[in-house]
Amino acid sequence: MDDAFPDSRKVRQLGEHKVGAVGVWTLCGIWSARTLSDGFVPAEIVRGYDEGEFYAAKLVKVRLWKRARHDGEQGYVFHDWGDWNPTKSDVMAERERWRRTKAQQRKAHKVPDVSTVDSSVDSTVDSTEESRVVSKRPVPSRPVKEKTPQNTSCSGPPKRGTRIPDDFAATDAMISWARENTPLVGSAETATFVDYWRAASGARAVKADWTAAWRYWMRKANAEAARRTNGRGYTSATDANIAQFLGRGGPNLRALPGGES
Predict the structure, then answer these.
(1) Structural domains in the chain (count)
(2) Residue range(s) defining the domain that contains residue 210
(3) What is the rounded distance in angstroms from the CA atom of residue 88 to the CA atom of residue 103?
(4) How far apart are CA 131 and CA 129, in angstroms?
(5) Which of 62, 76, 54 is nearest to 10 (CA)?
(6) Alpha helices in 36-53 (DSSP H)
(7) Over the stretch 31-84, which tens digit does the pLDDT of each residue have?
(8) Residue 44's domain is classified under what CATH number?
(9) Where does the record place Low complexity bias (predicted)?
(10) Crossing angle for the helix pair 18-35 and 54-61, nearest 10 degrees?
């Protein structure tokens, strides 16, 4: 569509019907370009945008459209379609040129030696005029950007996350790790971990490595337990009873027979 189209004489002649008529004209133009109908639009298609063909009659009156018949079907054709749009034959020829060029490029990329590439490309060009056009006007291929791997230590694709497995449980190796690294928490904390993540929802409930998530949870729980004991580490029931006993001052001691106290 020319940028001067809205101010053209034919559009001005549409008067108060300009917006509706140009809307139908534009939608039908898109349909024709997509279907390669060379500007012909069947009346059935027009009625899909203009039920009573009211605007179509206005477009014919100002000579933006002409009534036409194609393959026994009544409809409308755009005025001077070929002056502003590629015809079906032009589009098909361009597609064929593109197909031939891409075929040559794919074949050339499969041959490692440069001299072999040249000969293979030349062998695909025949003596027809269309092939000579291809050799003169190749369609440039887009450069392929090499992706830099984010983690060169990983040879395979990134691991996809999952929800916590139904059979998740601490293995012997995990238990040994916990005894060494998180001595203030035990199996009860693992049960809490499992119940929490089974009840959770959304993206945060999906992990790529549940064992690593468990270790993080255990470290965090161990640190919280350490804070609750004021940094003293594990406090046994016996230690707690002794501390309570001493805090009260203990019982009044009496001398025992034999001079012992």
Answers:
(1) 3
(2) 172-244
(3) 22
(4) 5
(5) 62
(6) 43-49
(7) 889 898 888 999 999 999 998 999 999 899 999 999 999 888 899 999 888 777
(8) 1.10.10
(9) 113-126
(10) 90
